[in-house]
Amino acid sequence: MENNYLENSLPMTIKDWLYYHQNRLHFRQKYRGLDMIKNPFDLIIYEELIWQVRPTVVIEIGNASGGFSLWLSDRMKMVDTNGRVITIDIDSKGDTNLYKYKSDKLISIIGDCNDIKTIGKVRDNIGGNDKVLIIEDSSHTAENTLSVLQNYKDIISVGSYFIIEDGICDILDLGVRPGPMSAVLEWIKSNSNFQIDRECERYILTYNPNGYLKRIR
Ligand SMILES: C[S@@+](CC[C@H](N)C(=O)[O-])C[C@H]1O[C@@H](n2cnc3c(N)ncnc32)[C@H](O)[C@@H]1O
Questions:
Q1: Domain interval for residue 32
Q2: Distance in Å, CA 136 to ligand 1 centroid
């Protein structure tokens, strides 16, 4: 794409834009110098949900380089809950990158998110009065997503969200199929405590179709 980004892009379809973002921008985005793999339209929704739900704990499952962990930690400072972020990855890169920022407000756990020991460490850092929101962004296979949904569903507080990222894999050709959206659509049939909040997809250009699950009871 040459200089006149907007003029040259007007003929793009939404699908074209999603591939453009995925191929040209997704892996170039940074937050405070650390890679953060996010669609900006979803970031706006996350910011809104954090403000609206006012969680005391946000759990990020899969942190890669840690940029989004830091983004979450900074967003938590804008709400009055004095909240914390728990971030998990099977790999240690994010943990290493976050060394300067780790504290009782930004807790990093290295381990497989579905391993009982990892889940135990997460639970050890949550109290009965905490309001918990979870963002799942790990391997994206339907099998792994289903395990995450099952293992973490009870941790989400009523009125809060279980965000399952990258259901877009089931729609576009991005490698993982069946992916997160297939898992959600199957799982939700027998988990009526959760409802898909399609309002969170109103910008259309989301990576998380059917992925914003609100715990309603
Ligand atoms: C898409 S990246 C996460 C991106 C990050 N949330 C961000 O927004 O920048 C996926 C990460 O999930 C991790 N991962 C994959 N399978 C996992 C598992 N079973 N348990 C924990 N982490 C896992 C990978 O090591 C990788 O770093």
A1: 5-215
A2: 9
The best mutation among 87, 138, 149 to test binding of ligand 1, ranked by most ligand atoms within 8 Å of the C-beta, falls on 138
The DSSP element (H or E) to which 15 belongs, if any, is: helix 14-20
pTM for this predicted structure: 0.97
Ligand 1 pocket: which of 91, 92, 163 to mutate (most atoms <8 Å of CB)? 91
* Separation of alpha carbons 212 and 217, rounded Å: 15
Contact (CB, 8 A) for 13 and 20: no
Instruction: Indicate which CATH number applies to the domain containing 141.
Output: 3.40.50.150
Distance 89 CA to ligand 1 centre (A): 6
Domain count, the chain: 1
Per-residue pLDDT tens digits for 99-157: 999 999 999 999 999 999 999 999 999 999 999 999 999 999 999 999 999 999 999 99
- Identify the three-state secondary structure at position 132: strand
